[in-house]
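Protein details
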Amino acid sequence: MAGGTGNGGIGGTTGNHGGSSAGGSSAAGSSAAGTGAAGASGAAGASGGTAGTNSGGSGAAGGVTGTGGVAGTGAGGAAACLGHNIDVPATTVTGVVTINGAVAGTANGYGEISLRSATGDSFGIASTSGTSYTALVVPGTYDVYYGINLSGTAAPRNSAAKIRSGIVVGSTPLALNIDVPATTVTGVVTINGAVAGTANGYGEISLRSAAGDSFGIASTSGTSYTALVVPGTYDAYYAINLSGTAAPRNSAAKIQSGVVVGSTPLALNIDVPATTVTGVVTINGAVAGTANGYGEISLRSAAGDSFGIASTSGTSYTALVVPGTYDAYYGINLSGTGAPRNSAAKIVSGVVVGSTPLTLNVDVPAPTVTGVVTINGAVAGTANGYGEISLRSTGGDSFGIASTSGTSYTTLVVPGTYDAYYGINLSGTAAPRNSAARLGCFTVP
């Protein structure tokens, strides 16, 4: 009779004679989540049985030796919640703050040293005005920042300069001496190559880092400047301070990129380019004046520069503008029957201001919109509360056009597609309490 196949060994035990034995197996070790202990490694299975013999035939050879189980990888448990008694851990941090290795005092300006964590904790611990400091701090890992408090010749102008990274406050007292590096930056600021003075307006020059540090260093009103700056890489910006015929109207125009302030004094002369832009502003093709309301024309760049250049109240305008590409917007200044109600309506796109004078005539289109506002189909009046109807565009324009207190309305609106909203103005039994309820789409052709 032919020899049969033997039964396989289980879990590494030896198989029966007369057949093959499957290699032993061992289940992988496991650990329940929350205990944090790793599972033990499984033991290797024993070898299978030997080949059986029988006059009818020969049995297969024994199985191969089983492999051991894989070690478990149990996850640690979640931190336990606080009890009702709460203890705040606090470590004493002490040290001395210096600027360029010397104690600065307060005579010529001073700044603050703060700590910031990755989770948003931010707080002051010391000033450059003192000789030493002591502060209690909750243990953690922090970066050290410097920011100006009182401007002066001995204090860097920075508002948020990172001085050191990865300061670990543990459970034992920490000595943390902080030195603020500061480089002298000097230069002359001009507009179109000439010193501007203050007679006809002036602006400010500021430096900005990619990390958000932003601070003024000079004015177009002076002939030269000197400022202390923490070393780093910055972009230089111009912004109007006092409007006038000699100062560009821009509020945030980038003038230079990649200004590197190192450890040695830097000469940084800054010239603000400015192009004359002139034109006439009209509403529906006519000069509007001020008798029945008026609005402002502003220019906006893709980088966030935004500033007014003209009003619908005048017949013409002249303004200095830093060269760039802008969109022209209209926004109401004084409500009236002759001025559109819009607060931020784009009128012209892609206005390119180059290095040569530009004529920019701006016409604000404004169809008349009329209608009646009702609540549940009836005119509500004002006796029992009332609300306002406003229009909003996807571009951020938002403005009121009518009230539930009247029987009808008439207003000028720049063409576009809007959403109409209702919001309560005066509470009462006849006025819905909503503050911003969307009513539906509203198109002004």
